[in-house]
């Protein structure tokens, strides 16, 4: 039997970080469809993130991407966030948009380009000092397009050297989260393509280096929950970039494409003791055709639903069935939890927190969408091309 009160108490502590770039316009390489009312500044992105938190009660921090969110005064930006009831979260670096990075950033064959990239990462740590952020999230677009283009092993050495310099700069309460992705924009070799590579680098660096799992960054069919279980077992799971995908790095709403996979991942998190602030639950999404704020509210709710189902798994019954080798009973325990309609439970949790039980409806009724559509003209593009 699961303890419902404990499940509700756990759900009340859940925090999902939303990404500043998800509030801006985005698109594919073919077209960016501009939406009315999107933020023009980092301050306005934070205003929108604060709305997501206001209606879900579960999105208290917002991640920044530098230089997309570059400002003169980061402490003032943090104060702006706090005034709106949220905090600044992970600082995401960007070493993929300058012409200099055509052949890579920290793995580039030229020392001068590597220096520039590392300096940017160090600047991101300065930003963290000013914002009070704990996590530096690193994703490198580095790789090669053709066999022989560069020395794959030498690139690993350059990566290790760069990471070590940044690691040494981290404060006592700061961490480095290393993200992997199997391809794109490089199409032959990627310098951090998988969790094994990320894990090997993080292990060498030390306890402040952790792996981040972006759910859209694996080959189709990859058993992501196995990766989650393994990283947790090794104390190396720093967090998630949640999103969902049908094909490649689609960056669709978390839980939209495969809610069962999200449940399986959350089950391993819960089972592995990862439902703690040490594992950052972040979204990394782009809302190309749908309205952004409600899409992000929906995504947060999807993560909550997967978490609620994972918490509902009758672990004693599961352990007993597993020990007895009863394949069907064990699978049945897991499926019973997955097939539970947790929406009433989450509505109750929200009411107990003083929130509207229906965040989507509450946002719609709030009039915020109409207000920003009238007030903001000339919204920013989220990332590429910004
Ligand atoms: C790369 O595909 C990635 O997932 C990294 O987290 C980037 O920083 C982010 O997308 C930008 O949207
Ligand atoms: Mn990501
Ligand atoms: Mn991605």
TrEMBL record:
Signal peptide stretch: none
The keyword rRNA-binding appears for this protein: no
Gene Ontology molecular function, alphabetical: L-rhamnose isomerase activity
SUPFAM superfamilies per the UniProt record, alphabetical: Xylose isomerase-like
EC number: 5.3.1.14
Residue ranges crossing the lipid bilayer per the database entry: none
Keywords of this entry: Isomerase, Manganese, Metal-binding
Protein name: L-rhamnose isomerase
Organismal lineage: Bacteria, Bacillati, Actinomycetota, Actinomycetes, Kitasatosporales
Primary gene name: rhaI
């Amino acid at each position: 039997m699961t303890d419902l009160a404990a499940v509700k108490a756990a759900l009340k502590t859940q925090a999902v970080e939303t990404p500043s770039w998800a509030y801006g316009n985005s698109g594919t390489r073919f077209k960016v469809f501009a939406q009315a009312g999107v933020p023009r500044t980092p301050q306005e992105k934070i205003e929108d993130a604060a709305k997501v938190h206001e209606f879900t009660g579960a999105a208290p921090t917002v991640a920044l991407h530098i230089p997309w969110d570059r400002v003169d005064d980061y402490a003032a930006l943090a104060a702006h966030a706090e005034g709106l009831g949220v905090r600044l979260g992970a600082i995401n670096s960007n070493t993929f948009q300058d012409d200099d990075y055509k052949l890579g950033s920290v793995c580039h064959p030229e020392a001068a380009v590597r220096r520039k990239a590392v300096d940017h990462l160090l600047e991101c740590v300065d930003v963290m000092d000013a914002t009070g952020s704990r996590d530096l999230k690193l994703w490198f677009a580095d790789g090669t397009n053709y066999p022989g283009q560069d020395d794959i092993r030498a690139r690993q050495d350059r990566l290790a050297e760069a990471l070590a310099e940044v690691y040494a700069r981290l404060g006592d309460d700061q961490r480095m989260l290393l993200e992997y992705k199997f391809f794109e924009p490089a199409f032959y070799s990627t310098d951090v393509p998988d969790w094994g590579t990320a894990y090997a680098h993080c292990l060498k660096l030390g306890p402040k280096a952790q792996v981040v799992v972006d759910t859209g960054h694996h080959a189709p069919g990859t058993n992501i929950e196995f990766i989650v279980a393994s990283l947790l077992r090794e104390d190396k799971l720093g967090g998630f970039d949640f999103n969902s995908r049908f094909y490649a790095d689609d960056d669709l709403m978390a839980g939209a494409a495969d809610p069962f996979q999200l449940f399986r991942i959350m089950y391993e998190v819960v089972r592995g003791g990862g439902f703690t602030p040490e594992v950052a639950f972040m979204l990394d999404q782009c809302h190309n055709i749908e309205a952004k704020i409600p899409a992000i509210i929906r995504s947060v709710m999807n993560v909550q639903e997967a978490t609620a189902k994972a918490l509902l798994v009758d672990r004693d019954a599961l352990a007993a069935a597993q020990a007895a080798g009863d394949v069907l009973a064990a699978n049945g325990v897991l499926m019973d939890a997955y097939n539970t309609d947790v929406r009433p439970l989450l509505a109750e949790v929200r009411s107990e927190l003083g929130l509207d039980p229906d965040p989507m409806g509450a946002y719609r009724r709030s009039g915020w969408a109409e207000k920003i559509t009238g007030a903001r003209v000339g919204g920013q593009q989220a990332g590429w091309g910004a």
